[in-house]
């Protein structure tokens, strides 16, 4: 399998696990020194924290998986260059605590190391997320 194909499979499999709510499987795709950031948010809401390290990212992912359910997921583009990747996708998002739902587009930037996700920076409509959550 080529490096590009391996990264494409890694990302695809990680997102399939996320969309089915499988935290253990999701975290199996993350590097032990991983980081996650939802970019663009200035509010100190829990979903906008920027955890570093496997345990901290796991805690954040558990919160996100419990709070947001995705449907009608569609990949719009995936670009891979060396150890970096960009995924543009959209989905209908249900915020479980508020019961509200809305369509969202998301751009995710990845850095891959040792066949795992080292960093993930996610860009979406943070004002829309705040509205969806009722924040």
TrEMBL record:
Molecular function in Gene Ontology: isomerase activity
SnoaL-like domain span: 12-118
Keyword Isomerase: yes
InterPro entries referenced in this protein's UniProt entry, alphabetically: NTF2-like_dom_sf, SnoaL-like
Pfam families according to UniProt: SnoaL_2
Keywords: Isomerase
Keyword Isomerase among UniProt keywords: yes
Protein name from the UniProt record: Ketosteroid isomerase-like protein
Organism name: Bosea psychrotolerans
